[in-house]
Amino acid sequence: MSASDVRDRSNSNGEAELVHTSFPKNKIKILLLENIHANAVKAFTKQEFQVECHPGTLSEEQLLEKVEDVHVLGIRSRTQLTDKVFSATKRLLVVGCFCIGTNQVDLLAAEKRGVPVFNSPFSNSRSVAELMIGEIISLSRHLGDRNKEMHTGVWKKTDKGCREIRGKTLGIVGYGHIGSQLSVLAESMGLKVLYYDIKHILAMGNSTRCPDLESLLRQSDFVSLHVPETTLTKNMISQPQIELMKEGAILLNASRGTVVDVEALAEALRSGRLGGAAIDVYPTEPESNTDKWQCVLQNCPNTILTPHIGGSTMEAQAAIGDEVAHKLIRYVNTGRTGGAVNFPIIEMQPDPASHRILNIHKNVPGVLKEINSILCDFNVNAQQLGTTPHIGYLVVDVDREASKQIKERIAALQVSIRTRILY
What we know:
The protein is of the alpha/beta class and 423 residues long. The protein has three domains: 1-124 and 313-343, Rossmann fold; 125-305, 3-Layer(aba) Sandwich (Rossmann fold), CATH 3.40.50.720; 350-423, ACT domain (Alpha-Beta Plaits, 2-Layer Sandwich), CATH 3.30.70.260. The protein is built from 13 helices and 18 strands. It is elongated and about 80 Å long.
């Protein structure tokens, strides 16, 4: 499948318009921001796509100008893809988030324009879990403070507040791929593991599920957060929850910056209510490494602050580059959407003897009847349709001789958002 034909049916004013663009693979433009791993670049260039890379983010003004003729956009966590950005796109087929989260993307705006969004939810799980283990040990021995003192010429040999982690209790909030991997590593080091998740997830090893967050907080010597950013998790650890924690307990957050009330945490650390913290994510983060950064947690006792590096290992970034690039290439070449976070999942295998038509349309009453009427005229049976409340996604393999005519008739429907044909 070496060529695509794209037809969009809306302009910036919301008026219907038809835009024909037929191009081979070497005309597909890919824009990669935020220093995405070289593995992704190699995968795209192997496909003979045009690839443009930027080491950092772009300002909104620069982004609005760049995305106008881009077909594939790859970002990490700092680039914000708003409705305004999506409105500026004319040829955008797909977005790849080369990271775990997708909260930096307006997923609904992308969906309504027929743009699936892919991410890599699991590739850096081991990296984050290992960092948590390292920080649990470091905080138990006050290594951050001792290291800082030594660098300023202060020799402070003491065992005050220093403990082994063996036999202590780790409470994990969010028992997904990272939380469960952390559970296994922690248990192998002699920690007792409790976990809480809003989903009923089976325990790994000898870990124990807590019925609620409160019971986990009361029992844990260490609390490690691994939850997404949602309305439910915003400030889920604030003063009331800190008051439930053990005196001298340690809090770790490598999930999202909005999950912890950092003002309340700083007060608890300075008062001695908590014994330490390791924080990798923050409510507001700089756009680049050259920007200045300040946080109320700076200079709190026994507190390790890291610049959102939980998944920043060479192994994790290489795996993310491979995984997301593979998903984007598969979508561009075959229309398959397995792993998309905002789109119907269609995994229909392509038929080499056929042409494939991909149609994204508004999910309104009567649309299926209209589409089936067209397909019945050509005796087409090889099709799959998936829907969300807003859109429908149709993948259909048709006879090569009739493909152009079928594509034109489907694309002409008033409900069609975008129609592509793959050869």
